[in-house]
Structures are given as structure tokens and as C-alpha cells.
């Protein structure tokens, strides 16, 4: 949300210079806009506007949930900003007729206060649209988008599972290192590489890393091959329930 330059203390001081010499101190204090403008501007700057809404992308659902959990604290500053607008509007509406009807006050000063009223009211309309419920909708949208992305990625990773199962069948027919290398090794490596990329597969990442580190030429005989196939089968069964539904 952009902040109007007309609602700054600096802009008021430009205008205030025109009335300082014609108003007595009591009236000058009464018609001063600086305090309320400064309160509002300070409240606006206290809001973390950049991180207020859900981000465009999150690596994991855990990261999204952690960010959303901090939303109420960030939104508290928004409510403080929203609450600072009505006092400025009320003060400006009180000041405007005083300055407008004073014979010695230049018209430009009261015109400026009228601008403050209009822009403050516009700002209030925009600020009031910012609600915790609406911000949470943004997180819901981001969450669904992330889940969809994870499902697509999971489908790619899951594609290794049937290849591994088919490879196991082939290797059992002829359990030797050459057959393992030709029919199964690449699928095991593919699965191991893919598993390392996704947090939801973290429970099985170490085991897939171990399996992919075993080179075909280290499986010296049929017994070693068959034992290795059992480990792969067990890990596949352990992995399948972890994929996003």
C-alpha cells in the first residue's frame, strides 16, 4: 500500500509556514496538523508491508505454516495503522473551517486541509479492506498451489517405483551384476537422486543414498544380488506411503 505524500508532516510544514505569522500561538496549536499526520505516518511505516501477505513461493508446507503462524503479530501493526486514520480525519474536519473562515489565512492552507480530509478518507477505505481473513485466504491459495506442485513432482518421482519393481523381476530371473546393472541400477539411482530433493521423503533419504552408493560390480554373487533385491523391495514398500495423496 502506497502512502500519500500529502499526509506527511513535511507537507504540512510547507503549508504551516504560511499561517505562522498571522495566527496567535493558541490558535496555531489548535489548528496544527503535524501531530496527527506524524502519528499516522509512523503507524504506516511500522507495518511490514513487504512480508504482510503470503509470498509467491514456499519451498515446503512447513515453511508456509511457519510464516502464516507469524501473521497475527504482523497484522497487529495493520490494526494500529487503521486506528490512526479516523483521528486525523476528525482533526482535519475540525481544523478546516477554522482556517477557511479566518480572514488572514491564505486559501491554499485550508485547501490543503481539504485535501488531507479527502486523501485520509480514501486511505481509510483502502486500509479497511485489509483484513486478517483476506490475508489468510492468500496463504490458503499458496498452500493449495504448493500441494499441487508437490503432487506433480511426486508423480515424476513415483514413476521410478514401477520401473524398480519391473527391474527386480528381471534381475531375479538372472541374478548377476550385469543384469542388475542393465535392468535395475539406473532406476535405483534415479529414485535415490529424486528422493534427496523432497522433504516428505526425508525418512527414507539415508537408505536410498546407501543403496545408490552400492555399485553393481560390488555384488559378487547370486546370494549378494538376491539379498540386495530384498533391501530394495523393503525400501520401496517403506517409501510408497510417503508420497503426497
How would you characterize the overall build of this protein?
The protein has 245 residues and is mainly α. 71% of the residues lie in helices and 0% in strands. The protein folds into two domains: 5-148, no CATH class; 159-237, no CATH class. It has helices at residues 9-16, 25-30, 34-45, 61-69, 71-101, 107-128, 132-158, 160-173, 177-183, 185-195, 205-213, 222-239. α8 (160-173) packs antiparallel against α10 and α8 packs antiparallel against α12 (222-239).
Write out key terms for the chains shown.
245 residues, 2 domains, 12 helices
Topology:
Layout: H1 9-16, H2 25-30, H3 34-45, H4 61-69, H5 71-101, H6 107-128, H7 132-158, H8 160-173, H9 177-183, H10 185-195, H11 205-213, H12 222-239
The rounded distance between the terminal residues' Cα atoms is 38 Å
Portion in strands:
under 5%
According to DSSP, the number of beta strands is: 0
Can you give the mean pLDDT?
91
The low-confidence runs, each spanning 5 or more residues with pLDDT under 50, are none
- Topology as a string of helices (H) and strands (E): HHHHHHHHHHHH
Rg: 34 Å
Largest sheet: none
Query: How many distinct folded domains?
Result: 2
The helix content, as a percent range, equals over 70%
Number of helices: 12
Structure in a nutshell:
This protein is mainly α and about 240 residues long. It is about 70% helix and about 0% strand. The chain contains 12 helices and no strands.
